[in-house]
Every structure is written in C-alpha cells, then in structure tokens.
From TrEMBL, chains A, B:
SUPFAM superfamilies: Homeodomain-like, Tetracyclin repressor-like, C-terminal domain. It holds the Pfam family TetR_N. Residues 5-65 form the HTH tetR-type domain. The keyword Transcription regulation applies. This is TetR/AcrR family transcriptional regulator. Gene3D superfamilies: Tetracycline Repressor, domain 2.
Length: 194, 194
DNA sequence: CTCCATCTACCTATCAGTCGGTAGGCTGCA
DNA sequence: TGCAGCCTACCGACTGATAGGTAGATGGAG
C-alpha cells in the first residue's frame, strides 16, 4: 500500500470529476494534465484514448454502485429503507459537492454524440440500475412497505427518472438542497407510512 | 411572408437541434454551416458569438413555451388536464423526434461549463417553469383534480424533475416510448380519478 | 450609392493523439 | 557481484484537424 494514489487512479478521479461537472465534450486531456501535474502525453500512456478513460470511469462507478447495493441489501432487509438509503447516498454526494451529478446521467444526456463503446457502457449502467430498483420495489410491495400503483418495472423507471431529474433541478437552481426536497416528496408518495 | 425561412431562422433551428442532441459543448459553427449550406463566418454575421446563438435559442424556446402555456390556460380550465397536456406535448416531441430533449434541460446539465450570460438565460427558464407549475398545482388542489401530499411548490419541483428525468431515461434506453410510460406513472400518482 | 448578406482568406488557440526518447526499477544470468 | 535486457512511467516536440472568431472584398437589391 503506497501513501499517494497511483497516477492512473489520479487521472481516473479527475476524469470523473470533470465528466460530472462539464460532461464528456466539456473537458480535455490538458485539463487533467494541469490538475494532477503531469504532461498530456503521459495520460495517453494510461488511457490510450479519451473514450477509454471515460469507459474506465463508468465501469468503476458501476462497480462501486454494485458493491454499495450489495452491502445495503445485507445491512437493511426492508426495501423502503433501502430506497431511502439510495436517495440519502445521493443527497450526501450532492450536498458536500463530492459528486454533484451522476456520471452516467451526464453521459446519458450526451449519448447521441458519444463514441459507440462509451455509449454501450453508459446504457449498461441504466439497465443494471432499473433491474435492481425493480427487484427492490417488487420486494417492497411484498413486504407492504411501499405502495405501487403500477407494475414494479414501471415504478422503478419512474423512481429512477425522478432521482436523476432531481439532480438536474439541483444543478439548474444551484441549490443542492433542492435534491433533498424533491426526493422527499417522491419518497412520501411511494413509501407507505407505518 | 417569404417562402423560405430567413438565414437567421435556419441557423436558430439548426442550433436548437444540435443543442438538443449534442449539447452546447458538442457542436460547432462548422456543423451549422454544413447543415444549412453557408460558410462558417456568415453565421457570425447573425450571431456574433456561439453563446449569443445559444442564448437566442433559449429565449425563443421560452417565448414558445410561454405562448403555449397561455393558449393552454384559455382552452382548458382544468388544472389536471393542463398537466396532462404539458406531458402530452413532450410525448409528441420525443416520439416524432422533432425535439428529443428539452434545450434548457440539456444546458442545465452542462451549466457549470457554460458562459455566464447563457447560464443566466437557462436558469430563467427553470424559474419560469416552476412558477407556472406551482400556480397550476395550487389551482388543481383547489379544483380537487390533483392530489398533493406536499406544498404546491414542492410538488411542482418534483413534477418538473420527473418530466426531465423521463426525458433522460428515454434517451438512455433509446426508447422514446419510455417517456410516455414514466409520465403516465407520474400522472397516475398526482391526478385524482373522477 | 449605399447597405447588407455573404463570401474568401486568414488568425490564434486548442483538440486528441503520435513520435522518439529518457530515467530508473526489476529480472535473470554469468 | 555486475551487467544486459526489458519494463513502466514519463517527457518535449510535434501532427493534422478543428475550435471560435476576424478582416476585408464582392455582389446584388433598393
């Protein structure tokens, strides 16, 4: 274990930050080079093409989310609480500005202009996320802790959309707190009182 | 009235199309020049800077929406029906690919990297839209056609977020129909049955 | 003659990416 | 022990393409 992060990891971190704030078309290798104090060609040594870096960022995000989801399922058997925890996770990220936007959501908006292989990775995230949410809502309906007016799959899509829309609103108004208000409104419609 | 659109209008139209599909950082004056068959510097004659063009696109969109909203209020006094009509408007746009994404939503995602004057115009759209939706939901609650669990302002934010999130989902999955499914789920939660 | 839209020609800055090369660490072998 | 051979990480200098933007000439319409 080394004290400082590896160069590849630093590039990955800065790449994630830039994609979240400016989007794929809004940053360059020069930005990353300046930020971490190396020269531009050195980045190509670690990530041959810009799309390779973006794909690595997306895949890393997916791995982190998958791990979080698994951890969450073990720690909290109640589906509605898992739903809350998912929203709370994004709340924290947006409030402390560590992740003011979901990487995949940002890239989804830019999808029509992205390289094909990157687009595939982005679509993969959405497929995985809706699958998980669908399972979660199905479980919640069985447990009686969430109330659905539509099929679990349709409600999962609507829930995910609302979360990502809330991120957009928070950014549009420059008010991170807006995310919290919106998701609370959302949850108060879906989660059954006990 | 002339048979063909003015060059400025053609530039505006192509600019709107490009912002919707690729975002502000995803297109150039060269793209527009190619699309409408003029040289690049001719665009500068009509819109001095790229940000001026984008601002014009946003302002035009806001004017169109304002006119539509006014027309809608006259034609349909029921708030829940106006809400449905608003969703139906976007459904049509996304289904026929004439406007697969809201210009302001796309720009909102890119906000941190936009020129200041453009950012102001974008934020203006969101302020106007939430104000209208808040009024509409207040009216709906009074009429008894919509059911709110939170304040009209909070519900308006949540509704708007859900609509924009639905656009993102439709794009992420490459399925325009997804927008319809999601907004129907949304409306079924808000609009009271009679 | 004037004005306006458009043009050609050009600018500087930056883009992603390539090239040849170097510094230094590790490995295996004599 | 010493050294050859290879490796990773990084560099300066560069490429062709493209970015947004400018200057000044041209040509047609009122």
């Amino acid at each position: 274990m080394q004290a400082t992060r590896s160069t590849a990891d630093q590039i990955l971190d800065e790449g994630r930050r830039l994609i979240m704030t400016r989007g794929y078309n809004g940053f360059s290798y020069a930005d990353i080079a300046d930020a971490i104090g190396i020269r531009k060609p050195s980045i190509h040594h670690h990530f041959a093409a810009k799309s390779d870096l973006a794909i690595a960022v997306v895949e890393q995000s997916r791995a982190i989310i998958a791990a979080q989801v698994e951890l969450l399922a073990e720690a909290e058997p109640d589906a509605s609480e898992q739903l809350r925890a998912y929203a709370a996770y994004w709340e924290r990220c947006i409030a402390d500005d560590s992740a003011p936007f979901c990487v995949a959501a940002m890239l989804a908006a830019e999808l029509p202009s992205l390289p094909d292989d990157l687009a595939v990775a982005v679509r993969g995230h959405f497929a995985t996320l809706t699958k998980w949410l669908t399972r979660l809502l199905t479980l919640g309906a069985r447990q009686g802790s969430v109330s659905l007016v539509r099929s679990p799959a349709e409600e999962a899509d609507a829930f995910m959309s609302a979360i990502y829309g809330a991120m957009l609103s928070a950014r549009a108004f420059g008010e991170p707190a807006r995310f919290t208000t919106i998701t609370e409104t959302l949850l108060s419609r879906v989660v059954r009182l006990r």
